Amino acid sequence: MSVYTPGQVVEETGFSLDTLRYYERIGLLEPIGRNAAGQRRFTQQDVGWLGMLRCLRGTGMPIAEMLRFAELTRAGDHTVRERIELLEAHDRRVEEQVDHLREQQVAIRNKINYYHSVVG
Question: Rounded to the nearest 5°, which phi and psi values hold at 43?
Fold first, then answer.
C-alpha cells in the first residue's frame, strides 16, 4: 500500500499543511496514521478523499455540509440516499452559480465589443 508524506499530499491536493491539520482536527479526515517516528503518513484512500473534499470546497460547499457528507459516508451504505440528496442540492447551487457567471460573461463580452467599436 502506498503511503504519502504530508508534503507529498500538499503537492498532490493543493491543500496547505494547516488545512490538512484543520480538516483532521474537525473530522473531515479520519485520524491520519503515523509511522514509528510519529510522523503523519497518508494513504491512497486519504488522498482520494481529499480530492473529493477539494472538489466540494472548490465548488463552494460550506464546511458544515462537507462535515455532514463525511459523517454520512462513514456511517455506511445505508446513507447513500442521503448522500445523493446532499450532493444533488449542492449540484443545483453550482448550476445556479454557473448560470450567473454566464450572465456576467455576456455583460463583459458586450463591454469588450463596445470598446472594440470605439477604437475602430
Answer: -95, 170
Q: Read out DSSP for 62-74? A: -HHHHHHHHHHHH
Q: Where are the beta strands (DSSP E) in 18-79?
A: 33-34, 40-43
The pTM of this model reads 0.86
Which position has the grid cell 488545512? 19
Question: CB under 8 Å to 74, separation ≥6 — which residues?
Answer: 30
Measured over the CA atoms of residue 74, residue 77, residue 78 and residue 83, the dihedral's sign is positive
State the Cα–Cα distance between residues 25 and 23, nearest whole angstrom.
Answer: 5
Query: For residue 21, how far is the Cα from the chain centroid?
Result: 15
Query: How far apart are alpha carbons 106 and 112 in whole angstroms?
Result: 10
How confident is the model over 108-118, as pLDDT tens digits? 999 999 999 99
67-100 pLDDT, tens digit each: 999 999 999 999 999 999 999 999 999 999 999 9
Rg of the Cα atoms in the chain: 20
Cell numbers at 68, concatenated: 455532514
Assign 27 to helix, strand or coil. Answer: coil
